[in-house]
Amino acid sequence: MKFRTSHQLVLASASPRRKELFAKLGVPFEIMASSVEETSVQARDFKDYVQKVALLKTQDVASHCPGKTIIGADTIVVFNDELLHKPKTKEEAIRHLEKLSSNRHQVMTAVAIITKDRQAESFVEVTDVYFKNLPKPMIEMYVQTNDPFDKAGGYGIQTAGALFIDRIEGDYNTVVGLPIASLFEKMMELKIIEL
Ligand SMILES: Cc1cn([C@H]2C[C@H](O)[C@@H](COP(=O)(O)OP(=O)(O)OP(=O)(O)O)O2)c(=O)[nH]c1=O
Predict the structure, then answer these.
(1) In CATH, what number does 9-189 get?
(2) pLDDT in tens, 49-63
(3) What is the pLDDT of residues 164-179, one digit of tens each?
(4) Which residues of the chain have pLDDT under 50?
(5) Is 74 tagged catalytic?
(6) Nearest protein Cα to ligand 1, atom 9
(7) Where is the active site (predicted)?
(8) 178 CB contacts (<8 Å, ≥6 apart)?
(9) Among protein residues, the one whose CA lies closest to atom 24 of ligand 1
(10) Rounded CA gap, 184 and 172, in Å?
(11) Nearest ligand 1 atom, CA 15
């Protein structure tokens, strides 16, 4: 499918998964990654946090792209009131996956849009993910693949992390990092893209 747009679109992301999902809109876009430091953000709760980070990334790129419409996103994994960031070490990745094993967690992805006339919009999608029991040797084998390190929560639902999933409630693409169906609706509503 291809939609019409009169906007010059910029995806504020270095993530190849977000690029692939955004390409489903069938409109031309360019990529410019932001260099925002995420951890210094103060927020009321996790939804507020992820939304603020998405907006910061998007504003950062917007400041370099006058006249263009910028879309950015941020994804977090929340387990028992705790944020499970991208793991920095194998030990941290193992600890994340041990927590997620046999349990439910939430993946939240916020999307921010800054239009060419600098109107800012954002929304958050939440998907509940239920993990199967993960035997320790399986966790260790997975962490050896290095798959966890660029991913919130330390797993990829679209990679071998698929083997851990019992079920999900919500949009699969929210877990991968860009709820493209909701983003499509929002972009139609804002008339950034048209049929
Ligand atoms: C839970 C989960 C997360 N992830 C990814 C999505 C995000 O890319 C990443 C969370 O990090 P983010 O900080 O949201 O994004 P990023 O640093 O990868 O890219 P950018 O800021 O440039 O847009 O975790 C998966 O790919 N699969 C999964 O199952």
Answers:
(1) 3.90.950.10
(2) 999 999 999 999 999
(3) 999 999 999 999 999 9
(4) none
(5) yes
(6) 151
(7) 74 (proton acceptor)
(8) 17, 18, 21, 22, 73, 109, 111
(9) 151
(10) 15
(11) 19
